[in-house]
Amino acid sequence: MSRRRRRKKLPQGLFQADIHTLSHEGRGIAQINGKTTFIDYALPNETVEFNYTDTRSKFDEGIVENVLNRSKTRQTPDCEYFGYCGGCSMQHLNAETQLQHKQSVLMEQFEHIGNVNPEEILSPLCGPTIGYRHKARLAVKHVTKKERTLVGFRERRSPFVADINSCVVLHPKVGKNLPLLSELISSLSNFDQIPQIEIAVSDNTTALVFRHLTPFTGSDLEKMKLFQIKYDFRLYLQPGGYDTIHRLDEEPVQSLQYSLPDYNLTMSFLPTDFTQINIEINRQMINKAISYLELNPEDRVLDLFCGIGNFTLPLATIAGKVIGVEGDAGLIERAKANAQNNNIDNIDFHVADLAAKEMIYPFMQQHYSKLLLDPARTGAKEIIQALNLKDIELIVYVSCNPATLARDAGILVHEKSYRLCQAGIMDMFPHTSHVESIAVFKKQ
Q1: What is the CATH number of domain 1-74?
Q2: What is the pLDDT of residue 4?
Q3: Do domains 1-74 and 99-128+278-443 have the same CATH topology?
Q4: Residue 400 falls in the annotated catalytic set
Q5: Mapping DSSP to helix (H, G, I), strand (E, B) and coil, where does residue 145 land?
Q6: Under the phi-then-psi rule, with left for phi > 0, alpha for psi from -120 to 50, and beta for the rest, what region is 83?
Q7: Has domain 135-256 been given CATH number 3.30.1490.190?
Q8: Which residues of the chain have pLDDT under 50?
């Protein structure tokens, strides 16, 4: 039987601390009486007054109340809800220092986990720092005492939905219209049975997927249809799992789109498909990956964890042949459709579990000259170990988790005879501690 940790009585009052560094998630770190204390919203080289929020045997936690000695890297947050809403954690730190911090996290992970260091540290890929989120899952909660429905991210370190009227990191089509969503939901008969809205902003429309636990009435549906027309959204309903999602107007689920103008490509996807949230960084990332792969028409490229073909199709505009592999059969269907719609015929797609303990797939018996990896947070350890890398001279690895990238880099360098030539960060999620990165490996 599991036991809940019994929280100790917290020290009361304001306490002073000198901050010497940042944790990976962006909290200030102080040593108080020989004990590590993580303090929210404190920055290195600051002296702060803070309240304790938790105390444990090995470390304590707190939150800043007053900054006595302000760091030069501190800035005024763009969002009035920063510190209360949990959507961002680093708006108090200027953009340049955010990038430096994320880069230091990546390099530390390479050294400590993979026992490797890149020969060259790449300049960060940067883009817009506000209005950049094209995808998000927003929580919904009707609060009787407030007589309104809250729509947004959850409060900082809390399960409660933050009471916000706008969000500067969401695309303005959604970020500036949270009150409209609140008013709509409050007017519905099942206002207390809608736990979330999944948003996807595309080039051709903005999709809102309403998860609902009980059915809508006819009157509800009419209100939602009027809302959809008046404010130019495309509404979807989700009464159960992802397979239950359907258009509000009962039309077929229509694809959303984003363009890759450098390759004259248009990518179609469904509202809940995985796509990158930051379209500007995604375009830069594709360009960099293709550049690092040094492609030519004779290349056979293997694109693992290919999704809807985000890298696969651009690769195919240069390479002679590309093989895209993904574990989600639905994503592969969209990838095939994208290739067909863009008149690209030098791609083969396969469905395969790339995290299986044993892998024997036809695509693994073929020969490739280049490899692109873009795995989920768990990394690509299993397929790296299983794949015959003998003929693969160049690997580009795109990662959303520096810890698993560092682990896999260690395998490639120490077991598979590759050099870690280049690595750097991509600012896919500004104002958060999320580190997106790219690494280039060459055969020794």
Answers
A1: 2.40.50.140
A2: 56
A3: no
A4: yes
A5: helix
A6: left
A7: no
A8: 1
